[in-house]
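Step 1: inspect the first sequence and its tokens.
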Amino acid sequence: MKLRLFRLLLCLGVAILAVPVFSFAVDVPINTTSKVYFSPNGGCTQAIVNEIDRAKSEILVQAYSFTSAPIAKALLSAHKRGIKVIAILDKSNKTARYSSATFLYNSGIPVFIDSAHAIAHNKIIILDRETVITGSFNFTKAAENKNAENVLILKSKALAKEYLKNWEEHKGHSIEYGGK
């Protein structure tokens, strides 16, 4: 009985720390295609670069740690092809010794810093409002070569719409990055 009550309270957001819990359900269409990659050395970075290279109109990024040169270069290449590219990064990217924030900013790609949270830990790329790249994979060399992480690529307009709402919410409270 106590476990059931705890679960009910947790679902209602009345956890011990009184921190609200938000959730929603999205019915993912049966025809949604997905691909999964694992690291270390599982091709996660190349899979992300391949998806970026296929983008036709828009790439929206949310990242915690972003130091991957291949992903940054792929975003720049997309930008040069006329693709709209915007990145929202965690505040740690303002002070990190190296971050792709400065590279993207200096390349003319709008970069925003999300400082509203202890950490903005999202790792998301939304492509053309129909493909979502997500998972534990930070956009870093260490994530590809040293860490045990995952990337999930989902082709679903319904799912992309939900991620887009969340992306826009975070952009709404983020501050435009001005470079170093």
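Step 2: inspect the second sequence and its tokens, then contrast the two.
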Amino acid sequence: MKTIKEIFLLSCEYLKKNGVENYKFSSEVIISKILNYKRLDIYLFFDKPLKNEELDKIRIFLKRRLKEPLEYIFPKIEFYNCKLDIDENVLIPRQETEQLVDLIVKKLSLEKSLKNKNFWDIGTGSGCIAIAIKKRFPMLNVFASDISKKAILTAKKNALKNKVDITFFLGDLLEPFFGKFADFIVSNPPYVSFEEYNNISSYVKKEPKIAFLSEDGIFYYKKLENSMVDYLKKGAKIFFEIGYKQKKQVFSLFSKSHWTEKIVLKDFYGKDRFFFLEFN
């Protein structure tokens, strides 16, 4: 009989071979759902053998994953100790975004005090980042915005589900925050260019195009760079998720002297994925 670890590795290999980008996260979700475990708990039981009927179910869902987003297979998912309902109006939270949250948590944990500090999540989608941060740091004032009314409704339901108090705004990027100032801003904006869009998997195209499609890949970073200075407190910290080919572009874009402490970090797959900087 094969163990959870063996099936996990085979599942990752199968999904990766067939072009599923977030193959590790997908494998974790499928196996944990079939076994009725929390997603990350599968690592605690790696040596446990699986029954034939469990293996059969896992195979069925792996085949479905080649054609369908996770949201259509399992509408309820776990994300950084949060339970989220995902629908067709928002992107499925990726493993990379969960890593982004973990990196932010480590950064915020170094702060002397977070009391009365303002944390903004720009383009919140399902609300996953804002909810995870508020749940971890309840003393933070957390605000989130999105241009999609349907996404905001989904995010509000998820906030209620996780019993966190977040203020949501409907509007484009920073526009809803006029007259307000942030200590921390996170954004995972659309960063797939038109050229890249033509080459992505068909199942990804089933997700809302508005949530990941950008003209040249850095269109929204340009808009944020042009407007953020009017919304930031001195010493504010900014956290971005970026396309893995965009390191040079974002460094060049945020080249003015008031952008400092710039760093790009890699994701689990060794790709440049996170861009952190400060405003002075």
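Step 3: confirm your contrast with the notes below.
The chain has two domains: 4-67, 87-279. The mean pLDDT is 92.
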